[in-house]
Structures are given as structure tokens and as C-alpha cells.
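Question (not urgent): is this output format expected?
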Amino acid sequence: MFRRTILSAFFLLAFSAFSFAQNAQPEMADALRKDGKIYVVVLVLATIFAGIIAFLVRLDRKISKLEKHNNPIS
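Got this back:
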């Protein structure tokens, strides 16, 4: 019963968010798109996400190496 209530609440919130998003007109995005600057914004965001992913992969490799080094039983 509790799970069903949580699931129902999630779907109601999700659908209400979609309905609000469809009515909004992003004036800033239109201006950036018109000036051609939207590509700069997308490039900066892609670079940031790529850096975060690279950092997490590197961190995971270091942690895995430490786990293997400190656990000789496995």
C-alpha cells in the first residue's frame, strides 16, 4: 500500500512538471539560439560532464587498485 502511494505521487508530480514545461517559452534560449551562442553553452556543459565522468572513472580505478592491494585473500 505504501509503495503504491509513493508511486502514484511520483507519477502525479512528473506529469504536472511536464505540463508546466510545455507552457513555458524560454526566451533566453531563443535569444542564445538566434545569436548562435547556444552551441557555446552546450559545449561548456558537455566539457564539464566529460570532466566529471573522467574524474569518476579515474577515482574508481584507484579505489579498485587499493581494494586489491589491501585484500590479498581474494
